[in-house]
Every structure is written in structure tokens, then in C-alpha cells.
User: Fold Dihydrofolate reductase from Kribbella rubisoli.
Amino acid sequence: MGKVVMYASVSVDGFIADENDQPGPLFDWLLSGDVPLDESGVVKVSQTSFDYVRPYWDQIGVTIAGRHVFDITDGWDGKPPSGIDHVVVVTHRPAPEGWDPDAPFHFVDGIEAAMAKAQELAGDRIVEVAAGDVGGQMLAAGLVDEVRMDVTPAVLGSGKPYFGSVHAQHLLEDPDVIQGNRVLHLRYQVRR
Assistant:
């Protein structure tokens, strides 16, 4: 089984989006450099950020996200983001009407079932869990091995918390820290 990583860009006050689900300046770092991060050529970061992010992206086999994220992104038009092979959507509802059954998206009820499906699909590759409510639930259930944050120099004041509605203490190991343009990349192992 591959490692399970909770991940997102986050404001210094701990939010992954504002109250209206808008990331605002949280993705500005993805346009702050001159090294293309993907094939689109639109996303350009510093060499330092590229050296940190690209190898990580290349190891991801599956992303787990909640139905809310799936809905607000319009299901990424049926193509998993960043070249990822599969997306597992945690939801109590079926796939949207008219959804292409051949698209590499899997609609699963509950975090345990989502993790089992993701690990089956990922094999020894990374299972990425989107931060927010689903990520927080998985952290609370002891299913997350590592927490990654791309901390941006922005204060949102309120919004969607990185850890969702986690209400218990969880300890992390000391961080690995890498500074890019307009971002601080943090990586924490979850203490067991």
C-alpha cells in the first residue's frame, strides 16, 4: 500500500477557501515563477517549488475528495486533475445523471470504503486526500500518514478550514520546510 497524504494550499490562518468556496489568492504561488509545473504551460512556479511538487504529483495514483469539491469543480469535466489516474468521491449520492460511466471517478459512501477503493486503485502509489471535511475525517480516523500544506501569504479571516471539523488533538512530527515564491511548503508525518 502507498502512503496516504492529506494536501491543499492554505492561508496562514488555516483556510483552504473562503465562505463561498473561492480560493482567492491561495493559488497565486502557482503563477509566481517561470518553470512550467504541468503540460498546460499556464501553471508556472519557482524551480524550488517545482522540485518539491512535481515529484510528489508524479507519485499520486488516486485523489480522494468529497462530493462538495466534485460538484464545485464540475467533476473536472470527467478528467482527474494534475494527470492523476483516478478520483474517489466520498458521497451519499450516486454519480450525477448523465455522468460518463467510463470516466475514472468512483462514487463511494463513507471514508473507510473510499480509502479501501483508493488503496486498491493506487497500489503502491500515493493516495492523496483533499484537505477539508473529508480530509479531517480521515485524519481523525487514523487513515492519514502525512500532512502537506502549501502555506500562502494570505489571511482569509474565515472560510473552509484545512482540517474541516476536527475536534480532537492530533500530533504531527516536526515539519520539513521548503520556501518557494509566494509559498511555504510544509510536510508533516502524522505521529502514531
Observations:
- The longest strand covers residues 4-11.
- The chain has a mean pLDDT of 95.
